[in-house]
């Protein structure tokens, strides 16, 4: 009942906020803004502000759901949420000399804020030395200068004062951020470098901030921490579906882990039943993989027919083909994890969620390749072209090679897993660990409950709460 009350409270709070009240507050537009900000900011510095260990299994949960459940200490993104949910980086066109002005600005600020032994003379008026803010932009640009040993005096020319003042405005707001991050020199040491291409603007929109902190920021950063290269604009195109899919996948992983621990350490009978269920899933995965290879080969062969050598496909096919590759990449990554599962039975159970991930990805790929074949064979999405799409060809080769490798080695991997889980019950061998592992199973179940609450709120916002394709019931009480 506690989790039901939490869901009702969480959902009612969000619905009363009139979420999605404007076009700029859609999940996709907020996602686009965060990705744009990541292109501007220093990703490595930003990632250092996140405690990844604390994020484990909580990476998709928003601030509000964790506050309501007294787990605010597990919110991963408090150190970066102001950067991405309260600030926007608005592009502007500067003149050709702006970078030169910016270099002067950084040199003067560094000389005035650091102990610089080779500074022969300097004027550092209008600078607050404690927080490195500039309280009079025009005075700073008109009067400040530095002379370093062996160099000419660095100062701003009268024609440079306008752009200097714009840089000062962005720098001051950047320093406001640096104080919140407790990084005094963040803005002059490369945290923000785009003074000549973007203004920093503060966003004062409670709806935007709530959507960002509770749904979009966790989704984007979970992808960033998993694989920075996979973070492409396409993840924002259908942000509502992608966010809900990520939440569902993590929820199901944790419930699978929880059930595995409960079954493995509850009794010998329960463990044997869990082994049977897992073996059935593994056998079904091999069958689904054969279907996938047949279905994908149909697509590859169709695209490689000689008389289609001068065909090129439109953006609809290219987009769906890119999604197919992304799914196959996921299958291959999970296959590699499956190939390196721990030998010790308790650790093996703890990492067995790679099975559920791979099983889901194979099923998803089967559906996608069937739809893709229908699309490319319809005759409506190609045109004559003398240029062969090399990217398409290369991606086909990579996918075909990876799927064949999986098909070759997966039966051996599955046989190894079956051998390990049938070698003896952890209930008998690790009775002393039962209490600890029972607590871990409860932890997984509780986090899955929070993910369920977040999903329910998201579905209400998306106005899809009655869609059976989205809602899949779980007994979380």
Automatic annotation (TrEMBL):
Signal peptide: 1-17
Superkingdom of source: Eukaryota
Entry keyword annotation includes Signal: yes
Keywords carried by this UniProt record: Signal
Protein name: DUF19 domain-containing protein
Origin species: Theileria orientalis
